[in-house]
Amino acid sequence: MTIPLPDAARRRALVRMKATAGGLLVVAAIVFVVCRAVGDGHGGWGYLQAAAEASMVGGLADWFAVTALFRHPLRLPIPHTAIIPRKKDQIGEGLAGFVSEHFLTEAIVGERLAAAHVPQRVGEWLADPDHARQVAAELSNAVSGLASVLRDDELRTAVAGFADKQLRELDVSPLLARLLDAVCDSGQHQAVLTATLRGTMRFLDENRGVFRRRLADESPEWVPDWVDDRVFAKGFSAVQSFLADVSMQPEHELRHTYDAKLRDLARRLREDPEQRAKVEQAKLQLLEHPQVREWLSTLWVRGKALVVDGAADPDSDLRRTVQSLTVRAGQVLRDDPGIGAKVDEALQRMSGHIVTYYAEDLASVISSTVQRWDTEETSRRLELQVGRDLQFIRINGTVVGALAGLAIYAISQLF
């Protein structure tokens, strides 16, 4: 592994700065040569020669120091040079230890989390409808991607087996009892009875001829037809009248009996072991039915298709629901200080746990990554990152050396 290459502009800037620093050193050398060749070492020539000589010393010393960070100067294996290539792994370990000790601490991380106001900022972002739409789209892509890698044959069997196991273990009787109680308390059972009675009345009226012919078939041959007509009309009218009375009278005795029977059934479903056993046996027989088992085997495929199709359609109820819930969650995080405080507290606890138990593991990413870097390539690219600024050391050394040499020579002349 190597560090990503910097852009070409950084490389050109490094070349320019090296040329500038080297140029100043060459200028100092030329001035020194001229002073030695032309000057006599006295007066102004002495000052100029002293400044040029000290400038060369300072520039060369700083060139050596800067170069020694990245490579051996003049490719000579001088001790304590090529520091970065030689100490690359130690630098990585030291940096990892420094980060672990001074950055990945519970106090510092907790302080930064508190200062970041994460719940409020996340809430503001999520409350934006455009961002909520983006979240729904990303979740849709995630669902589609997850669905594409799942094996339908294995999951179909697993889901069917899970559903069958849960249904077999489910005690249905208490659920049916609660359902009957709820239906009776809401009066829906009376509405169902009314609809059933009226439907029966319509059915009898629409099939009056069928019933009349059946009576004629069952009646003895010696009974006249007019007698059958009178008997059928009277009986049919009595049945219809009774059904009409029950359907139109809320306080009819049959309705009270019906209500009492349903409530008694609910009670027996809760308390009567025999009744509960009958329900359990009926449930098991139903689960063994081929059509029920076939339906259970299609649960995964149907559910997957429903979720995937709904997630892929931008106008589906699923996508709209996710967007609405996202906006609502963002508004709660943004506007409810209590919820925000709880989320912030949870983040503090989670971050504290992570940095307490995993800070060294997190910091070790730095040292392990540095260890995998190529030595020479790392040195070259680090030089490209910081080398331009280091060239100012050479420039400063050349300039400061000249000033220091000039000052020292002036002081020596003064005394």
UniProtKB/TrEMBL annotation:
Domain of life: Bacteria
Keywords associated with the record: Membrane, Transmembrane, Transmembrane helix
Protein transport keyword on record: no
Transmembrane parts of this sequence: 21-39, 392-412
InterPro entries linked: DUF445
PANTHER family in the record: INNER MEMBRANE PROTEIN, INNER MEMBRANE PROTEIN-RELATED
Protein name: DUF445 domain-containing protein
